[in-house]
Amino acid sequence: MSGERRGAGSRARWAAALLPRPKPQRQTPSFAPGDFAPRLVLRLAARSPGARRPRAALGTAARAHSGGRTPSRGPGLGAAPPEDAGWQRSRGPACPTARRAPPVCTRSVSSWASRWTRYSFFVAMGYLTICHISRIYIFHYGILTTDFSGPLMIVTQKITTLAFQVHDGLGRRAADLSSEQHRLAVKAKPSFLEYVSYLLNFMSIIAGPCNNFKDYIAFIEGRHTHMKLLEVNWKEKGFHSLPEPSPTGAVMHKLCVTLVSLLLFLTLTKTFPVTSLADDWFVHEANFLTRLCYLYVVMQASKPKYYFAWTLADAVNNAAGFGFSGVDKNGNFSWDLLSNLNIWKIETATSFKMYVENWNIQTATWLKRVCYERVPWYPTVLTFILSALWHGVYPGYYFTFLTGILVTLAARTVYVLLLTHHQSPDHSVPANQTTSS
């Protein structure tokens, strides 16, 4: 009997093992919305993958919402996001009875804005460089011919300027911005119409100059002049109503400058033609001093061409009502917000720095805002290299701007040495003078 019972029991166990087992029914746990809320807040607020908040610092409020349970340890609240923080997978709740939330991908706005800003910069500069190469080595355009790369250079400046200003307004903290960056930061995403209008408006599409997006939008909306007047505290000057500045005087003055520049250019270039530099007599028989003096005169004769183009572009913007910069130290209305040069300071420059600061002013400002103030190392070298790439691919550009690096560094060194030599022993050299020169 016992053997039969054991055999039956063995057969029953084998039969039970061969039969398919029923799957257990999954029970969806019930939980209050407060169980998941504190963890969701922690996941959305977490920015830095390396920052950790102590378990005891989670507070009693989160435990109260979660029914007394301590939420899982996660990134600290309020941690500043790093510049290049990547995508992060959030952790699920620690309570085994709570429903595990699907992984949530979070990323810092600063990283997104910074990355897309770099993309915009390199794509715009890369396309401009390709156009420069095709213009010279594929289409074989000459130096003195009008080509498509000129307007494209202005558009490249505007694209990169707007990209960095949007990054300052949406992707960086206000405490990390300089006063100028904070003033020019764009804190709302521009519409497509605003973007295209800013890039391709007729006033600056041919010869520039580049301008800021906020100034252009204020001009389009009719609040440009009043905005500039409010910046100088008009009420403190004894006036109770804002006047309406007229650009007529500034436009007439700049048109006279363009007329004089045009006459000088036509006269001097005819008297001292640049083609004489390639003559056989000039290259092989003229002595070095003669060639050097003639080259200097030819270069001086070519400058009125730029005076004409940039001053005329400035006058066009002023005639439309754009370019008002406020009130000068004498109380007169000033219309030099978009001025690209200061002819008097150029012709009387006493240093290379003074010459560069007053020649192609808006391009120098663009180089400063997108490169010099943002690169972490060698700002002077990288700024001059960017200037050479932006101008084109002629070897003369690189020779000029790479030489400008040496001239600038040498001028700074000489300035510091002379200032130290003439400084009295009981006075030290101010730090701002040694760095800003």
Mass-distribution shape: globular
SSE run: HHHEEHHHHHHHHHEEHHHHHH
Total beta strands: 4
Q: Strand sequence of the main sheet, in spatial order?
A: 1-2
Number of H- or I-type helical stretches: 18
User: Considering DSSP H and I runs of 4 or more, what fraction of the residues is helical?
Assistant: 55-70%
Mean pLDDT: 75
**Main sheet summary:** 2 strands, antiparallel
C-alpha Rg, in Å?
34 Å
Strand content: under 5%
- Please give the alpha-carbon distance between the first and last residues: 111 Å
Low-confidence residue ranges: 1-5, 28-112, 427-437
Helical/strand content category: mainly alpha
What's the short story on this structure?
The chain has helices at residues 2-18, 33-45, 60-65, 109-138, 149-170, 179-184, 192-200, 213-220, 224-230, 248-271, 280-284, 288-319, 343-347, 352-358, 361-372, 379-391, 395-422, 431-436; strands at residues 88-89, 105-106, 326-327, 333-334. It has 437 residues and is mainly α.
